Amino acid sequence: MPGQADRAQPRLDSVTDAEVGAALETLWGSVAVDTWNARRAAVGKWLSWCAEQGWTAPTRPASTGRSTPPDSETGPLTHRDRPAHRPPRRRMP
Questions:
Q1: Distance between alpha carbon 72 and the CA centroid of its chain, in Å?
Q2: DSSP single-letter state for residue 66
Q3: Residue 13 contacts by C-beta under 8 Å, 6 or more apart in sequence?
Q4: SS3 (DSSP) at 21
Q5: How far apart are CA 85 and CA 93, in angstroms?
Q6: Where are the compositionally biased (Polar residues) regions (predicted)?
Q7: Annotated domain spans of the chain
Q8: Cα–Cα distance measured from residue 58 to residue 39, given in angstroms and rounded to the nearest whole number
Q9: Which one of 13, 34, 36, 81 is most buried, counting C-beta atoms within 10 A?
Q10: Are 57 and 14 in contact (CB under 8 A)?
């Protein structure tokens, strides 16, 4: 993109965990819970991918934990929540 070469870009290995947390808070700290969770997961996954490539990368700080909607009554499924049987599979001709 024009003009991007002129801007100083920090190297990934110079970015700290705290800076990652501050960026998450600045960009998405006041959005809806589901949006926050999706964005923090995407950033965390990208940072993990960078580390898998052998690059020195920061991690997502624990302070940027997953949020639960305040009115959520949904919890994890247990074996009692699953159907007792599965319907038969339809066979394709």
A1: 20
A2: P
A3: 55, 56, 57
A4: helix
A5: 24
A6: 61-71
A7: 10-64
A8: 16
A9: 36
A10: no
Among the listed residues 33, 26, 29, the one whose alpha carbon sits nearest the alpha carbon of residue 67? 33
Q: Which residue has the tokens 């394709």?
A: 92
Helix axis angle for 33-52 and 17-28, nearest 10°, is 150
How far is residue 40's CA from residue 33's CA, in Å, rounded to a whole number?
Answer: 11
**What are 78's two structure tokens?**
């247990």
| Cα-only R_g, the chain | 20
Helix (H) or strand (E) holding 52, with range, is helix 33-52
State the first-to-last Cα distance of the chain, in angstroms, to the nearest integer. 53
Q: Which two tokens stand for residue 11?
A: 């190297």
pLDDT of 42 reads: 94
Q: What pLDDT shows up at residue 74?
A: 62
On whether the pTM is more than 0.70, the answer is no
One-letter identity of residue 23:
A
pLDDT value at residue 2: 54
